[in-house]
Structure formats: C-alpha cells, structure tokens
Amino acid sequence: MTYIGSDSQTHASFDQATWEAYERAKEEERARKQAQAMLDKLSYKTVLDSATDDQALEMRPLYPEWQTGIEYTKGTFLQYDSILYRVLQDHKSQADWTPDKAVSLYVNVADPQDAYPPFKKPTGAHDAYSKGYGITFEEKHYRSKIDGNVYSPAEYPAGWEIVEEEN
User: What φ, ψ does residue 24 adopt, rounded to 5°?
Assistant: First the structure.
C-alpha cells in the first residue's frame, strides 16, 4: 500500500494480512472459474450422453467422429461417415470394427423423418423391431406386427404387414 507521509513524500508499506487476503481472493476466483469450467464440461457431456435418439439426431454435429483405439461405453453416440451411431456394448474400437460393419457393437440411429428406413437384420433383442415399426424391404414398405421382430419379411411374412402407398 502506498501513502503520502507527513513529510509530503510517497511511502510504501507492506501489510502481510492484506496481501494474504488478496492472494486468497485471487485463488478463490481461480478455483471458481475452474469449477465452473468443470461444471460446463460435465453438463455438456451429461446432456449429450443422456439424449434420446431423436435428440441426438438434432445434436449430431456435437458428437465426436469414430476413432480406433477408443474405449466406447454402451449408449454413447458417435459419428461415422456423417451418420450417427449409438454404441450397443462396451468395447475398445478396432480398425476392422467400424460402425457400418460391426452391427453387434453399433446401431445406426435412423432418421425419424424416414418412416420406412431400409431393413437391417437385427443381431439380437437390443436392435429387434418393435410392433408398428416401419421398414423398406425389397422396395416395399412394411410394418412389424409383433414386438421383438428379428426376421425380414421374406424370412417370416407373418411378422410383417405390407403398407399400401397413398397416392
């Protein structure tokens, strides 16, 4: 602290308690900023990780691109060739396990605007078709008549009904 003394000269004095209070305030501000940055990062990650498929599609540009050598956890969203995928089981990615080929590890998050996405053979209960779900198979639209449908219309016709197009 500086002051003008009785001799009209500028003097400086050091107050240890004032200096320590200043340093504590500076450290608390730094800690607050660091905590806020962590909260922002966790909030961002929580929102991305807890999104529904529809929400994730809207936020697709925010999701990372698929990479090899990454530990992916079930439910994580990622992009591969500009397509959004959801991870189906925990694993470490490998070059030969790309999302478009490793259907037991990833599922393409279908565009909800497409009522009849192309049929993709389910690999189990986790990606089986629900009753009422629409697909395109051999250039025709079908709707599943059963829950847990893992067959194509050719393999199990009783599980599908053809949908007539309105003109």
Answer: -65, -45
Q: Which residue has the tokens 């639209």?
A: 141
Q: What tens digit of pLDDT does each residue of 25-58 get? A: 999 999 999 999 888 888 888 889 888 888 898 8
Determine contact, residues 132/161, Cβ cutoff 8 Å: no
Token pair in block for residue 73:
């956890």
| CB atoms inside a 10 Å sphere around CB 147 | 12
pLDDT tens digits, 111-134: 555 678 889 899 888 888 888 888
Helices marked H in the chain: 16-49, 53-58
User: What 3-state DSSP class applies to 159?
Assistant: helix
Structure token pair of residue 87: 């991870």
Mention every residue, 6+ apart, whose C-beta is less than 8 A from residue 51.
59, 77
Percent of the chain beyond pLDDT 90? 47
Contacts of residue 153, defined as CB under 8 A and 6 or more positions apart, other chains included, come to: 119, 135, 137, 138, 140, 142, 159, 160, 162
pTM attached to this predicted model: 0.51
User: Average pLDDT, stretch 55-82?
Assistant: 93
Closest of 104, 100, 110, 56 to residue 80, by C-alpha = 100
